[in-house]
Design goal:
5 helices, single chain, about 170 residues, mainly alpha, two-stranded antiparallel sheet
Length: about 170
């Protein structure tokens, strides 16, 4: 059995982490998770949200949507009606967040495609380093088709080069 590099996902008891380095690392990971959950809550439930906290080192962090002013005003007066300009700012902020979220999703898809392509090329390079008859059986049907197309392209270019050499030799011999 192959040894795992990590302990995997498991329940962590809720108590203060005594080791300072572990506490800082945990804070960083959980901070990112908190931002992600707050952002998802805004997107999925169309809510306004405000979170403020301090790191173990005393650095302030916050997450507000749409803006800190709107959150504080609404917290102080929950029945308050938004002014037209504030409502416009709120709408603009929500649209911008949606645009950025969409762009992030697009970039995630591009990243996943690039990673898959790199893995494929790494396998092709690895395959080329071994004898083809030893590794051809490990390729998928799609990979075999791509490899076949590549080989046909190589053969085509070799024939062209050979023809050019033959034509050059015959024309210089006249």
């Amino acid at each position: 059995m192959v040894n795992k590099k990590s302990k995997g996902r498991r329940k962590i008891p809720m108590k203060k982490i005594e080791n300072q380095d572990d506490r800082y690392a945990t804070f960083s990971k959980r901070r990112a998770g908190l931002y992600k959950k707050a952002s998802e809550l805004v997107t999925e439930c169309d809510v306004d949200i405000g979170i403020m906290y301090f790191s173990p080192t005393g650095n302030p962090y916050s997450f507000f949507h749409p803006t800190p002013d709107v959150i504080v005003s609404r917290f102080q007066n929950p029945n308050m009606q938004l002014s037209p300009s504030t409502h416009l700012d709120l709408t603009h902020a929500r649209n911008r967040v949606n645009q950025l979220s969409t762009r992030l999703e697009e970039l995630d898809i591009i990243e996943k495609a690039a990673i898959a392509q790199k893995k494929f090329y790494d396998r092709v390079i690895e395959t080329r380093q071994r004898c083809w008859w030893e590794s051809i059986e490990e390729l998928s049907a799609d990979e075999v088709t791509k490899h076949e197309a590549w080989l046909k392209n190589v053969v085509f270019h070799m024939h062209n080069c050979l023809n050019q050499l033959e034509n050059g030799a015959s024309s210089s011999g006249m």
